[in-house]
Amino acid sequence: MRIAIAFYMQETSSFSPVRTTLDTFKLWGLYENDEVLEKSKTGYFRGFMDAAKESAIDWTPVPIIYGASTANGPITAETLSYFEEKITTGIKAAQPIDAMYFGLHGAAEAENAPDSEGYLLNKLREVIGDDLPLVIALDHHANITRLMIDKVDGLVAHRTQPHDPYDTSKEAGRMLFSILKGKIKPAMALKKIPLITHQEQYLTSKGPMKIWFDLAREMETRPGVVSTTTCPMQPWLDVPEGGWSAVVVTDNDLPLAERLSEELADKAWELRDDFLHRESIPAAEAVKRAVDAERGLVVLSDTGDSVYGGAPGDSNCLLKEMLTQQITVPAFVPMVDAEVVEKAIKAGVGETITVMIGGKLDTSFYQPVKITAKVARIGGGIITRISSAPDSITTEANEDLGVSFDMGRAVLLERGSIKIVVSEEVGIGGNNPIVYEHFGLNPGDAKMVVVKTASNWQSFQEYMSEVIRADTPGATMSNLKQFNWKHLPRPIYPLDELPIWPIENLSQE
Ligand SMILES: [Zn+2]
Questions:
Q1: Does residue 309 share a domain with residue 198?
Q2: For the chain, how many structural domains are there in total?
Q3: CB atoms inside a 10 Å sphere around CB 428
Q4: Which structural domain, as residue segments, surrounds residue 427?
Q5: Ligand 1 centre from 442 Cα, in Å?
Q6: pTM reported for the whole predicted model
Q7: Does an H or E element contain 382, and which?
Q8: Cα 471 vs. chain centroid, distance in angstroms?
Q9: For the chain, what percent of residues have pLDDT higher than 90?
Q10: What is the pLDDT of residues 283-320, one digit of tens each?
């Protein structure tokens, strides 16, 4: 049995002025043919391989393409057409094919296709026909569309935040192999939910998100249910079908799938105001509280500049506060600024430079800040995060399973007690200690560290005393009402009041 394997993964912030190009994909890994299997040994594929082993299926993987970019601004039309071409010609050349597994994010917007995954799936079906079993894996921050549902036999999205790509690809593999063995005949229903919320309640281990995801897991124990998917869409996607989704896959029972997807949608709606609960505090107060904290390491979450949500990572909002408050405790700060890297390298290690830093990519939210600092070290390049626990996959390992990225050239700047890692490329924006360790720094020595994420600070767990979410502006800010929404289906809560629920077929035309 020959199973085609492809990956196309990127999460878009519609509000980022930066564009995602093929070069962006290359910084994280863009592979074709056999290289896909050699180099994509991340959780996104290992779980699928393990499911194949478990099902004892006799198969040959037929790798087509692997492209996974960091979250970023919209994908250029040229880049999407590159994937379309590679996928369609790759599949044609690889015939005969018996099934396909396609790893997607689900919230990738292209300049010419707001639902770029649906677009690719449609193009794919034109080549493989309607009958070939096709299962996709998604990030649970996906925006699931009608088109996506129409073009696939089944889907599985992450079940936890932090993400669990290993488990997700394993579940998707199990589903595909069950279809191929004739054990199930999937029937699938999608219910859109007219809801968009900030990311401060996105952890699935607590609060309303736990309640919602737990219900989905409980449903999977009910007779006839194959899989359930709850997708709180990442909240910076300004597209015509944007909003949360609930999907249920049953064994040949469409009415059951429809009923349960509605039950999941109703539960999210019931919890809507809990999802909107804010924890972030003003930047000045956040820095002050971190300085005053009894002990470190305080994780300062720069919610408005979450690189995992597609922001550019060059907000200097918290750095500016540290300079204004003239802090004297050790602080680690990540920054993306190619110009500063160039100047620092030219000046050389040990030299002091005065530069304008940050605020150059996303000029609508912040301006460059003047700083005088010493060039302490020069480094950068490809950084690899490898998990050491392939057998017992923990949630954290799921997230970290062998991801490598290119941060471009990078320098360590020192300004008093503030240490700034400045990179040419965004990479993971300082969201993993390895970015600092690379420069010989130990996060355990710092009082505070700025992370460019509102939820994914788990890599700092061993050092961390507390997390303070700062209410900062930017392409991923929590104050969703401040964005200039143009394409979202309206009405949508909480941008609009929605007194009646359920609203039949809302955003499903
Ligand atoms: Zn996600």
A1: no
A2: 2
A3: 25
A4: 281-478
A5: 28
A6: 0.89
A7: strand 369-385
A8: 20
A9: 81
A10: 999 999 999 999 999 999 999 999 988 899 999 999 99
